[in-house]
From TrEMBL:
Name assigned to this protein: GtrA family protein
Presence of keyword Transmembrane helix: yes
Subcellular location(s) per record: Membrane
Pfam families the UniProt entry points to: GtrA_DPMS_TM (PF04138)
PANTHER family xref list: PROPHAGE BACTOPRENOL-LINKED GLUCOSE TRANSLOCASE HOMOLOG
Gene Ontology terms: biological process: polysaccharide biosynthetic process
Amino acid sequence: MRAKIIATAKNDAAKPLRFMFVGGIATLVHMCVAAAVLSARPESSAFLANVIAFVVAFLASFYGHRHLTFSTRGSMRRFFIVAVAGFALNNVILSIGLALSAPKLIAIIIATAFVPVLTYLASSMWAFKKK
């Protein structure tokens, strides 16, 4: 029993690190896809590039968190709600960056960097909450 408690505590302590790792990978996916869209079609809207990048990064994030971070099935629907709320915040920050005349990709990078903390909290307490 004591060994199980210690193992659980160690697992829980490492969870934020695993979340950062998976989130880092998903963020890189997001940025690379956005960069690829803007490179292939420079006339593209930063918002279109961001939406395409979000969809690809969402899938990488969900499956990474399911298998590495939380080791539980979780709810794709709930995680999608969390991700869309984070994406909405991301777009508010993106709008501010563009309004301040930041280059498109820089505005996307800044916007993408601010959302993960809130996403972790909502994911761990709701989307991937163990029953």
